[in-house]
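pasting input
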Amino acid sequence: MSYQELSLEDLYLQMQDDLYDGLKAEIPVEVQEALARGQSPQEILDNGLVAGMDIVGADFRDGILFVPEVLMAANAMKAGMEILRPLLAETGVSRIGKMILGTVKGDIHDIGKNLVAMMMEGAGFEVINLGINVDAEGFVAAIREHEPDILGMSALLTTTMPYMKVVVDTLGEEGMRDNIYIMVGGAPVTENFAREVGADAYGRDAAVSVEIAKRFMLGKNSR
Ligand code: B1M
């Protein structure tokens, strides 16, 4: 059966299955098919890619999947996100602010962070994506160079999330804390944790993070 013959619901189930199986060649075809059916990039992310990755995450936790399989799933997800990137990051939007984004030291998870980057770009932010495993010195140097309005940090591990506080404290020591709005996010991060480490905001997901960042810029520009 070809993808065109599947109902929309089955197309999304197929996408989740293929993501689970790490079928990097299939995912872009399915994403294109969903787009051709008028699905929005956000719907495809939520119902196909992120939903599939949630199943991968649960089976990884339960010892059913192992790192190589999860990596394959992650690569398949990235192949799908590459198609959605230009759609999420519409061209020609005037820049509303500048943001630096990175996954903290010790942590190599970048799918969620890259999704946040894409959606911020789509909303009109200039995003300087520092990548993974970024230490406090890396964040400080990038902030000095680019003078962003917002710093976003991502952590997916309970062992790396405390490093966010190291970065916030380092910015304080360098006298840079008051000039930047700090947002944190990642699966184990919570509102309370964000407050504890001295961040200004917690981004539950990419869409919420965009809303928070836009609201902050609105306030900043009207001051
Ligand atoms: Co990792 N891993 N992993 N892993 N991995 C988790 C996080 C885990 C929860 C899996 C599990 O056990 N169920 C678990 C952490 C447990 C814990 O800390 N309590 C775990 C583990 C243990 C590990 C290793 C230690 C495994 C090992 O080696 N034994 C290892 C650590 C490596 C390291 O970082 N040093 C490891 C490795 C890997 C892979 C390399 C195989 C791969 C990463 C590939 C990559 O990213 N390029 C991987 C993956 C894929 C996952 C899971 C399955 C999926 C993560 C993901 O991409 N989710 C994950 C299980 C899970 O989270 N369900 C797991 C999809 C993504 C869209 O969501 O990242 O949450 P998320 O991002 C969201 C929000 O959180 C938010 O917005 C995003 C979009 O809506 N957000 C932000 C994220 N960052 C933000 C920043 C912001 C704002 C919002 O700033 C403003």
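fyi The pocket of CO-5-methoxybenzimidazolylcobamide is lined by residues 50, 53-54, 56-57, 60-61, 67, 70-71, 74, 106-113, 115-116, 152-154, 156-158, 183-188, 203, 205-206, 209 (CB under 6 Å).
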